[in-house]
Write a structure and sequence with these properties.
The complex is a heterodimer of chains A (551) and B (428). Chain A has 551 residues and is mostly helical. Chain A has four domains: 149 residues, Rossmann fold (3-Layer(aba) Sandwich); 125 residues, Tetratricopeptide repeat domain (Serine Threonine Protein Phosphatase 5, Tetratricopeptide repeat), CATH 1.25.40; 79 residues, Tetratricopeptide repeat domain (Serine Threonine Protein Phosphatase 5, Tetratricopeptide repeat, Alpha Horseshoe); 92 residues. Chain A is built from 29 helices and five strands. The radius of gyration of chain A is 27 Å and the shape is globular. Chain B is α/β, with parallel strands linked by helices. Chain B is built from 20 helices and seven strands. Chain B has a five-stranded parallel beta sheet, with helices on both faces. In chain B, helix 2 packs across helix 3. Classes of the chains: A mainly alpha (551), B alpha/beta (428). The interface between A and B is medium-sized, with 34 and 35 residues.
């Protein structure tokens, strides 16, 4: 033990000075420690505990605790001895939730930290310290010292790189919310350190990963900023392959936001680049993504043409994984058109390939799609069997996002059979996962689904509450297709409450959005609804005047 | 502790970058000779002279963070009190939300500060006056439900007449809402705005009464020092307070001294609203022999430097790196004292300086470089269109000195940042 500590002190000479400062400080003193990695922090804190006579009071900050940090500190100090030192951790967790406000609050509440009359040590990732120096200068100006403890940059880079690579393609899908936040902190730190250096492939890659993390958290604006910076670098240094990938990622954000035209433009740019440099695998992926846009717009013929091109490429270059994914996507076109037999044949081909090459991720998706065919045909027990297999796989490989989706699908089987309480249990599990991993888009969908259980039970008040929550999330993140689905259901609640004007007005809103972005699924639902209401079909919505419904 | 201290353990605690000296502290050193003969005595004289006329003195004070401003204001308070003035020192940093402060908040804080100070002196005010103020607050500024709830929570019978303690508590409660950013905040501000003239008139009635009571008790007059406003960060906020609402601040019937952010002092329009020159507390001219000596003396008052530094040249190195900022100098000494030895050595000085340089490196942005270069050449603050100079001054990347005329330079730590220095010295 003593040797290990001795090592740490010689490895990090600043540790000796920090300990000395804390020994010397009588009463209040403000100290900052820059430390980017949690394991290193644990080691340093343990060393200080073993080498300081005074007690240390630790305050890990938690986003759920909505009390001022200084107030939490004072509460902790109430029972502490007069010479205790306060260590505050995890400010970055609050920062990611509330952004700048957390920092500015330090500035205008700095007075309160001094009132405790104890030394206060903030342990922070380095980028956040820079933020504090810039955004809370009066607070920072009180510091007695700042102590930096770092892993070397190459050490950090290689550590991150190997972790990311070893987890495979769906790395982000396997992370919990706090793991994602930690990755974001690490990436931002590294990027800050690389800020003075020339543009490099590493930098472009790091920014791309940062974008993917933000994307998975529904923080689309931040994701877009990172992707754009990544793109700029890739264009500057001529990293064509990276550029193609980034263009694909950017298109995904526009896709979620319902801006299919822009999404398509990015994909076409990507396609052009990949064709120019002969990146066949990338080309296959992009063709698949293009097909998804046409599918969303209901242009199944064009979608199919792109998928056939993609299939050809995958077969030419022997990309089995891509082939499996493409078969899967082709099946979904037939599924959307109600040709379940053809859809099933493609899905079986896809499954075969994925099992042959052990593509677990793909298999989870395909099993889910097979189940939905049986579901559509009313064969609930077969549908359930496939979903259970899919769930098992997704849990085994830690695909949390996929697990949330599957739980949602299982619930819809119970819903269809009228077993509302079981359906609700699955939805609650799904919601829990989505909240744990910060999957906002999924959360919006699940809340919408929960509302439908209550609606089916005739409990319109509760259904309404869930719809409002869902709508708020979807509007916040800009998930336009999700918003359409939720508004559609809100219209139904109005209708059932006898509020016909509001119902029609809400549905008309859905019609206008769906028509504007070309959302096929939404338009199809509206077509059926119009017929149900005794009108000729989709065109009827066009005859309504929104001004008639102004409330 | 006996100053100057004779060991490093005590030296560490004799140098605090985080609290101003109280008036009368043995560590105080008057720096007026190196501040271009400017000291708070000048200010005291100005206030006393004005108080002998019918006018009220409205004085703005500014200076870089860490230049010793709060220490000097505490001395001003003492000086005025010795001349039998009654001084109310309001530290708004601990009572208001500087992030979103408005003139209404400041007016409320002044009302509260005056009432609290009078109550502390057991000076009571005319019942009618208190009732008027109470009515204005209860009927026009907060909602009826709120009055009931608030008065119940602080233990005041809403029906009975109100005394000075009661109204003090009531205003404190309202200010709590303003500070904490509760849902009542905007409502309270809107309503004060709606009855602004009446509110100021009532505040002035209060001040007239307070001043006459204080004069009976032998005080020459009342002076209010509002400290902390220099920490407002957003230019929109301080411009709104000191430019847009200068009129309201000027209407207050008492001598008031406000601290302002240094960037605001560079606003050419400020003089139209506040006729007195802004009192500018410059950095100590650490570049001159005299300035160096004063800063050394300042440290000598705290610690026995001959005993605690292996050579006098070491303290000189720290002074040269302080940029004349007392706070930076004290911090440098703190860091240098983090040694297991009994004396501060060369290596400790190296480490302290490299710490300060790295900390300043966090503040400099690529886009600041061009303006920094211009200022370094011109040796004065250059006001660029993007108002980047506000940031440079606020963060002390650029320090303002006085030498008969205004004079500015980069903080010396910036010269040690290698990437920046390379850009600053690169030919165009």
């Amino acid at each position: 033990m003593a040797d290990a500590l001795g090592d740490l002190f010689s490895q990090h000479p600043e540790l000796k000075h920090l300990r000395r400062a804390l020994q010397l400080c009588k009463g209040f003193g403000l100290y900052f420690v820059s430390c980017n990695t949690v394991p290193l922090r644990h080691e340093l804190v343990a060393a200080l505990k073993a080498n300081l006579a005074t007690p240390i009071v630790e305050l890990p900050l938690n986003p759920e605790n909505d009390i001022f940090i200084d107030a939490q500190m004072m509460a902790l100090l109430a029972d502490a001895s007069a010479d205790a030192i306060v260590f505050i951790y995890d400010l970055e967790k609050l920062y990611h939730l509330k952004d700048r406000h957390v920092i500015q609050e330090l500035n205008w509440r700095r007075e309160f930290y001094g009132r405790g009359n104890h030394p206060v040590v903030f342990w922070l990732p380095d980028f956040l310290l820079t933020e504090i120096f810039n955004e809370a200068p009066d607070f920072a100006d009180w510091r007695s010292g700042l102590y930096e403890f770092v892993l070397s940059q190459p050490e950090q880079l290689s550590l991150m790189h190997s972790t990311w690579e070893s987890a495979g393609e769906n790395f982000v899908g396997q992370l919990s919310l706090s793991e994602k936040q930690r990755w974001i902190v690490n990436l931002e730190n590294l990027l800050a350190e690389l800020a003075g250096q020339e543009a490099s492939k590493t930098k472009g890659d790091l920014l791309g990963r940062l974008g993917m993390l933000y994307d998975s958290l529904g923080k689309y604006d931040q994701a877009l900023t990172s992707y754009r910076q990544s793109l700029q670098i890739q264009q500057d240094i001529g990293d064509k392959q990276g550029e193609g990938t980034t263009l694909n990622n950017i298109s995904h954000i526009h896709n979620v936001k319902g801006d299919y035209g822009t999404a398509l433009r990015y994909l076409e740019q990507s396609l052009k680049i990949q064709q120019d440099i002969g990146d066949k695998q990338g080309e296959g992926t992009t063709l698949n993504n293009i097909s998804q846009i046409y599918r969303a717009k209901g242009d199944y013929g064009t979608a199919l043409r792109y998928l056939e091109q993609s299939l050809q490429i995958c077969q030419d270059i022997g990309d089995k994984q891509g082939e499996g994914a493409t078969f899967n996507n082709i099946s979904q076109i037939y599924d959307a058109q109600g040709d379940y037999g053809t859809a099933l044949r493609y899905l079986e081909q896809s499954l075969q390939i994925q099992q042959d090459i052990s593509d677990k991720q793909g298999e989870g998706v395909t099993l889910g799609n097979i189940s939905s065919i049986y579901h559509a045909q009313g064969d609930y027990s077969t549908a359930l069997r496939y979903l259970e297999q899919s769930l098992q796989i997704r849990q085994n490989i830690g695909d949390k996002q996929g697990e949330g989706t599957t739980l949602n699908n299982i619930s819809s089987i119970y819903h269809a059979q009228g077993d509302y309480s079981t359906a609700l249990r699955y939805l609650e599990r799904s919601l829990q996962i989505e909240q744990d991993i910060g999957d906002k888009q999924g959360e919006g969908t699940t809340l919408n689904n929960i509302s439908q259980i209550y609606r089916a039970k005739g409990d319109y008040g509760i259904a309404w509450c869930y719809l409002e929550k869902s709508l708020q999330i979807q509007q916040n993140i800009g998930d336009v297709a999700g918003e359409c689905a939720t508004l559609f259901n809100i219209g139904h609640i109005h209708w059932q409450n006898g509020e016909q004007q509001q119902a029609l007005s809400t549905w008309l809103k859905v019609y206008r959005i769906a028509k504007h972005i070309g959302l096929a699924e939404g338009l199809q639902n509206l077509d059926e609804l119009a017929k149900y209401l005794g009108h000729e079909g989709l065109a009827w919505w066009e005859t309504l005047n929104p001004a008639d419904f102004s409330q | 502790m006996i100053y100057p201290v004779d060991n490093l353990d005590d030296a560490y605690n004799a140098c605090h970058p985080d609290k101003p000296l109280e008036s009368g502290d043995p560590r105080y050193l008057d720096l007026k000779d190196v501040r271009n003969q400017k000291s708070v005595n000048t200010l005291a004289k100005r206030i006393i002279r004005t108080s002998q006329t019918e006018d009220f003195c409205k004085q703005l004070v500014t200076g870089h963070t860490g230049c010793g401003k709060s220490t000097e204001l505490k001395r001003l308070q003492k000086h005025l009190e010795n001349s039998s003035y009654f001084v109310i020192f309001l530290d708004v940093e601990s009572t208001l939300d500087l992030h979103q402060i408005t003139y209404q908040d400041v007016l409320l804080n002044i009302a509260q500060g005056v009432i609290e100070a009078l109550a502390k002196q057991a000076i009571d005010l005319d019942k009618g006056l208190l009732n008027d103020l109470n009515l204005l607050l209860a009927e026009k500024i907060v909602s009826k439900e709120y009055v009931k709830e608030a008065k119940a929570s602080i233990g005041i019978d809403a029906q009975a007449g109100i005394d000075i303690l009661g109204i003090g508590k009531f205003i404190t409660k309202i200010m709590g809402e303003v500070r904490s950013g509760s849902s009542h905040r905007e409502q309270i501000r809107e309503r004060i705005k709606g009855v602004q003239q009446e509110f100021i008139a009532k505040l002035n009635d209060l001040l007239i009464a307070a001043r006459s009571k204080l004069k009976i008790k032998g005080h020459a007059d009342l002076v209010i020092i509002v400290d902390g406003l220099e920490k407002i960060r957003e230019s929109a906020t301080y411009n709104d307070l000191f430019i847009e609402h200068a009129e309201q601040l000027n209407e207050i019937g008492a001598h008031v001294l406000y601290t302002i952010p240094i960037a605001l002092a560079f606003n050419a329009n400020l003089g139209d609203f506040f006729p007195n020159d802004v009192f500018f507390m410059p950095m100590v001219k650490y570049q001159t022999a005299e300035g160096k000596q004063y800063l050394a003396d300042l440290i000598n008052k705290r610690m026995q430097t001959a005993l605690l530094f292996t050579s006098p040249a070491l303290l000189e190195r720290l002074i040269a790196m302080s940029g004349g900022s007392i706070r930076d100098l004290l911090r440098l000494i703190r860091i240098a004292s983090e040694t297991e030895e009994n004396q501060i050595k060369d290596v400790d000085i190296d480490r302290a300086i490299s710490h300060l340089v790295k900390e300043f490196d966090r503040l400099v942005k690529e886009e600041d470089v061009a303006l920094l270069k211009e200022i370094a050449i011109a040796q004065r603050v250059i006001k660029d269109k993007e108002k980047r100079y506000e940031r440079l001054l606020g963060l002390r990347l650029v320090n303002e000195y006085e030498n008969g005329k205004a004079w500015a330079d980069l903080h010396p730590a910036l010269r040690k940042i290698s990437w920046l220095q390379a850009k600053l010295t690169a030919p165009e």
